[in-house]
Amino acid sequence: MPRAVVDSPIGPLGLIASEAGLRAVLFDGRSMRPEGSSHVLVEAARQLEAYFDGDLVTFDVPLELHGTEFQRRCWLALASIPYGQTVSYGEQARRLGLGPEAARPVGAANGQNPLPIVLPCHRVIGANGSLTGFGGGLDVKRFLLEHEGALLPFS
């Protein structure tokens, strides 16, 4: 399976793809060895670079998602959260046609998101506005939200 490492302001990101689509974005790409190449990897790297340069607000790289039907629904719904905006887990559940009791399962699904940044789980926050769990760490979540203008820079 083709793999690449992309430098970013939050550290090296590991990318894993098939010929069909991007399968994973890993926060600590340091330990990953680049292997092979594909048009999907090249395009994903280009789009991530454009995102960090402030020139891209919506990703359109092909995706290959592996998870339960519920997880895939949650992950794909993340793409509908506009750049520079946030929603609560409860709001994401509501947008999926679920009740408020689904906020925790939605959060658990988001926690398994294999494509952070591309499917922007960093845009989902606690109902009280707090930054809650994030696979890349809360400092990275804060950086991404500040980068998008969704948060004022932390002093």
Task: Please state the structural category.
Answer: alpha+beta
Largest sheet, strands/sense/barrel: 3 strands, antiparallel
Q: What is the arithmetic mean of pLDDT?
A: 93
User: Number of helical segments?
Assistant: 5
Beta-sheet strand percentage?
5-15%
Runs with pLDDT <50, length 5+? Answer: none
Percent in helix: 25-40%
Number of strands: 5
How do the strands of the widest beta sheet line up side by side?
1-2-3
Radius of gyration: 15 Å
**Ends distance:** 42 Å
H and E string: EEEHHEHHEH
Q: How does the overall form come out from the CA principal axes? A: globular
Could you explain the architecture of this structure?
It is a single chain. The chain is α+β, with helices and mostly antiparallel strands. 32% of the residues lie in helices and 12% in strands. It has helices at residues 39-52, 69-78, 89-95, 103-110, 138-147, and strands at 3-6, 13-17, 22-26, 87-88, 124-125. Helix 3 crosses helix 4 (103-110).
